Structure formats: C-alpha cells, structure tokens
Amino acid sequence: MKNTLCLLVMIISFSSFAQQKLALKDVDQNKLLKDIVYTHTDQEDITILYWFPVMYWEVLSAKDPKTFGPEIVSTLKGMLGNKSIFIAISGSMSTTLRSFESKEESYLRNNLSVTFNGKTYKPIPQSKLSNELIMLNDYIKPMFAQMLGDMGAGMELFYVEITDASGENALNPYNNSDFTLSLASVKNTFHLPLPSLYKDAKCANDGELFPANYEFCPYHGSKLIAQ
C-alpha cells in the first residue's frame, strides 16, 4: 500500500512549477544535457535523439564567454531564426566487430518528426536551407565523430520550424507546452519548462533536493519547498 501511495505521489509530482530561474552561468550542463538528450536501446539497436535549443549555446557562452562568446550565439540565432535544431543517431552495434553501423540520412530524414499541440512537423528539406545552416552541419558532424567514434560519424542534423501565435519559436525551454520527437517507432516527449533551468525543490522533512518539476516529495508525500 505504501509503495502504491508513493507511486501516485510521484506521478502527480510532475506538474507546473514556480521555482526560481537559475542564471545561465549557474545551470548544470550535465543536467541540461539529460533534459535534451534521449537514448533508446533495443538489443543491438541504438537510437539517440538530441534537441539543441539556443538556450544550450547561451549556457555555454555564459560559462565560458572567452571560448564561446555572445557574438557567436547572436550569429547562430540570426542563422536559425525560428528554426530548432535536432540531431538523430540510429543504427546497430556489432558486438563481434565492435563497430556501429549507422542508418542512412534518407531514413533518418523520412522518419523524423516533431509533434506539438496535436500537429506533426517534418524537417525542412535540405534544398530550402541557407548555405550557412548547411555549413553548420558540416561543422558539427566532425565534433560528434571525435566524441562518439563510428556512432558520432552517423549523426545527422535537421531543422524544424514551429512557431506560436506571435510568430516566435514555440519550442522554448521556458514554455509550458510539451512536444514529442519521434524517429519511426522511437518517441520521446520533452517536458517543458526544462527543470535544469530552475533551482531544485527541497523536501521539508530531510532537505533532500528534487528536480524543479517535482511538486511533492516522492518519499514523504509532503509539498516541496520552492527555492
């Protein structure tokens, strides 16, 4: 019975929250990556889906402005407009050859989609992208190959444009509307706002910290304290 109650509390704990926003320089980059990266494994098959909001680059700039200056972020914003960056990696890991066989770009492009407010969006065709955005793909791909080897070499970068009623990018990390990123049968819902951008909530009983999107302590059932 106790386990059931804890489960119910945990389920309802994921709700809108009013924690204090963190300054960008104080955002934990590892927590932010956990919020924007999804990995799915099925035996030897591996799929990794990334959402790279401009916010991610702003955090990098705030933490190390000498290496990743604000002018770079401003240029990137100008290149993107209201487009969002998504990265997909999918393929099979050979346990015998210890290599990763990536799926073709055409497969990734044809099967990638974003669902927001009941509507499905597909990546913008390569032919409709600016030369600057095409070059950005050529810049990022070697970075992934260096970090992840064969798996990173198989990454593909896509752009999707989704705007709100005011014409702004609807996929804002501070918004309250979730969206789902899909690659064929693999799906992940990004719950907004991203909890890593806010201070953790604190349990009144023992002071344990929980992500900002928890409203109640999953162990004590008490309402968490906003910080």
Q: Which band does the percent of strand residues land in? A: 25-35%
Number of helices: 7
Helix content: 25-40%
Global Rg: 19 Å
Find the count of extended strands (DSSP E, 2+ residues). Answer: 11
Instruction: Report the principal-axis shape.
Output: globular
- The structural class is alpha+beta
Q: Give the end-to-end Cα distance, rounded to a whole number of Å.
A: 31 Å
The parts where pLDDT drops under 50 for at least 5 residues are 1-16
Order of helices and strands: HHEEHHEEHEEHHEEEEE
Average pLDDT works out at 85
Largest sheet, strands/sense/barrel: 5 strands, antiparallel
Task: Give a short synopsis of this structure.
The protein has 227 residues and is α+β, with helices and mostly antiparallel strands. The protein contains seven helices and eleven strands.
